[in-house]
Write a structure and sequence with these properties.
By secondary structure, this protein is an alpha+beta fold. It is built from 3 helices and 4 strands; from the N terminus they run βαββααβ. α1 packs antiparallel against α3.
């Protein structure tokens, strides 16, 4: 049985180490436009937690898991990961499928 590629949603959370909040924010802002221009990117919005300003949250929508996989291997994401490796206390990525 072959499955048709279906849209996925992603919630990606990055918590900055104390003192690295603004550097992380700038780095995160720097990947927004290149990612929005990727094939398969439907939504890529960066948010900051009002009550925990060290916490940044991406809300994303992708045409398929394949498009998300290509994004994860992109040059700008690889450069971002290297740049921020020492600035992030905790990160979490959840890949979701819409039920309703």
């Amino acid at each position: 049985m072959s499955e048709v590629a279906s849209e996925v949603a992603v919630v990606a959370i990055s918590v900055a180490k104390p003192g690295h909040e603004e550097a992380l924010r700038e780095a995160l802002e720097g990947i927004v436009e290149p990612t929005r221009n990727e094939a398969g990117a439907l939504q890529y919005d960066l948010h900051r937690d009002l009550r925990e300003p060290r916490r940044f949250v991406f809300v994303e929508r992708w045409e398929s898991e394949e498009a998300l996989a290509v994004h994860a291997k992109s040059a700008h994401i690889a450069a971002y990961r290297e740049q921020v490796a020492d600035w992030i206390e905790h990160g979490e990525i959840r890949v979701l499928t819409k039920l309703k």
